[in-house]
Amino acid sequence: MENILWSLFFLASGIQFTYLLLVFGRFAFFYKNQPEENLIPNPPGVTIVIAAKNEASHLKDLIPLLMQQQYPKFEVVVVNDCSWDDSEVLLREFSEQYPNFRAVNIRYTPSHVTSKKYALTLGIKVSQYGIVLLTDADCRPVSLHWIKRMSAPIRLENKVFALGHGSYMALPGLLNRIIQFETLLTAIYYFSFGYWKSPFMGVGRNLCYRKDFFMEKKAFKSLWHIEGGDDDLFVNRYAMSSNTAIVAHPESITVSEPKTNFKDYFTQKKRHFHAGKYYRGKDKLKLGLYSLSHLIFWLSAALIVILARSWEPIAVVLGLVLFRATIQYFIIHEARKKLEGKGKVIWTMFFDLMYMVYFWVLGTLGYLSKTVKWK
Question: Where is the Glycosyltransferase 2-like domain (predicted)?
Fold first, then answer.
């Protein structure tokens, strides 16, 4: 039994250090932010598409902010998905106020499709420009150069996808700390693999791609029946090393309103994990290997310490645990500076343990669930 535990502990440690140093560390320590760009006189136009359901309170603040973006040619298309609040009246007022604003009002969603994918498809179909930039109604770009930063890989490098970071507002309380840690860790995952030329997901809070590619692939064909996945599953299905770029710059991020109670947060994450079971096999393998080794690392470490009859094995285990925690801290610190322009992170080992529990509990529930909803 003891030999098996040590074998598992060292194997899991090796996998963890490989991921931390070679995958996540490569992005955290060696990725260089985009250089400053001088826009050409007549750059390609960009359409911002937002699917919104009962989001009048958020749209009231968001649309005027988007109109301040410092980009020569863009429009904002909001798809009002069967809302029963004041969204339609508000959107009509915006249409009269801003010449580059348009609204699409949905009265009915066909039964064979999911509502958000249907709303996004309509918005992208009516978009005037060939570059589509997606965000949500409760998101806010932190910079006036958000459009310029997010569209740069498509305009300048002829990419199909540009993957951005969507963070959450910092609020008091344990739940918000968990959300901050989980969101940053998720970003490190997909930015690191994107930097390794192996992209596997993006977030709809901050995602850019070509309209013609979307239409060529017949929108969300074969994904209509899946609730969620309008962002990560679409990217997972079509993103490749040759057509995808990451955009890691403090001016490129969006900030969203986080959930404020555990029930809503668990519902949201359950939906995210539900979509994850439809990832490509190779992507589930590379994510699953890290997550499984993470679980084995902590479980085997705990059992060795509990069953130890002397201080020597405890010292070895604690030494490796602290060494891993130190490496993880500096990786998260450096990655956050690249993504958000600030690097302070606290209690990484504590939240790492909480993340492990959350991942396996909610991940299992989401994977097995057959009933998830957008709104």
Answer: 47-164
- The domain ranges of the chain are 2-30+282-368, 46-264
Inform me whether the pLDDT recorded for 4 exceeds 80: yes
What is d(CA 300, CA 284) in angstroms, rounded to the nearest whole number? 23
Identify residue 42 by its one-letter amino acid code. N
* Closest residue by Cα to residue 104 from 46, 184, 50, 45: 50
- Is the pLDDT assigned to residue 373 strictly greater than 60? no
Q: Kindly report, residue by residue over 262-299, the tens digit of the pLDDT.
A: 888 887 777 777 677 788 899 999 999 999 999 999 99
Task: Give the CA angle between residues 200, 202, 208 to the nearest 5°.
Answer: 120
SS3 state at 123: helix
d(CA 349, CA 49): 38
Give Cα separations from 202 to 117, 150, 272, 278, 283 (angstroms): 15, 13, 12, 14, 13
pLDDT (tens digit per residue) in 295-317: 999 999 999 999 888 888 899 99
Can you name the CATH fold of 46-264?
Spore Coat Polysaccharide Biosynthesis Protein SpsA; Chain A (3.90.550)
Q: Are 124 and 211 in contact (CB under 8 A)?
A: yes
